[in-house]
Amino acid sequence: MSIKVAFLGLGHMGGPMAANLVRAGYEVLAFDPVPAAQEQARTDGATVVDTGAAAAAEAEIVITMLPNGRIVLDAYPDLLAAAKPGTLFVDCSTIDVGDAKRAAELAVAAGHRALDAPVSGGVAGAAAGTLTFMVGGEAEDFAAARPLLEVMGGKVVHCGGAGVGQAAKICNNMMLGISMIGLSEAIVLGEKLGLSHEKFFDVVSTASGQCWALTTYCPVPGPVPTSPANNDYRPGFATALMTKDLGLAANALRDNGVDGQIGLLAAEVYNRFNQAEADKDFSAIVTDIRTRSGEEHQ
Ligand code: NAD
What we know:
The chain is of the alpha/beta class. It has helices spanning 14-23, 35-43, 52-58, 69-82, 97-109, 122-128, 139-152, 164-192, 197-204, 212-215, 239-255, 261-277, 285-292; strands at residues 4-8, 27-31, 47-48, 61-64, 88-91, 113-116, 119-120, 131-136, 153-160.
């Protein structure tokens, strides 16, 4: 396959995503400032270059998987200036909807094409090539990127125009954060009232309170053996990442005049928990609610 792909940002997510593209036969020009990430990319079969611009100059598609919107917007001017006209920029980072729209505007103004394509599925999904991609941008650009996204993902959805991929991501994660807090409050209330975790699960998992946070990711050990609660809340999906995504959702609520009282409160609740337990899985919020309710761990 002759398509050259620049891949910038070879961290927990980008590293295995780039490796999957190499395995599928794409020629991957990779850049990350961290030597260990470069070394791993070399081992995975990518061609490591000295700068992001050097990668972008040679590629038909430029994929970025970077920590935040500031870093994406800081990196774009050099990349856009170096790239050949009409290069397709695909930003897979999770960033503000406003930053995603700005990045797309910059790319188009420089004569290029752009998609926002954030993911869910975590490091395990990145390694297995089973991520969900939520994509914003023009239909023909989506069609051009789709074969690559399908190498890295199990589900690829074109959500709408520029920024709407990020919108889908933060709407989903805002609901997840809210439901995990609500579920955890109900579990701690049940504990106080003498309701065992097993009976709670037995009833609620098939009643109107049923939700993914309970049935797939139960925040207390026992009912769902694969959930992080059974593994001392090792992530999974770290509290730091949930806090970041709820912060992005809170920005979007404010920027768009949405009266999202619970979404804003969820961002505050996780922000506080994140000060102490950033590395714990986000479902450990149940332990914080229990502690603040004056109960020892059960
Ligand atoms: P990470 O910190 O492990 O990786 C980011 C990488 O980007 C680092 O290796 C860093 O050195 C590199 N980098 C920074 N500036 C750069 C630049 N200018 N050019 C090239 N590389 C640069 O983060 P991650 O966990 O891989 O997450 C990446 C993005 O994916 C974030 O936006 C995150 O919110 C999102 N995300 C993460 C997960 C997850 O489970 N980790 C899940 C879904 C989405």
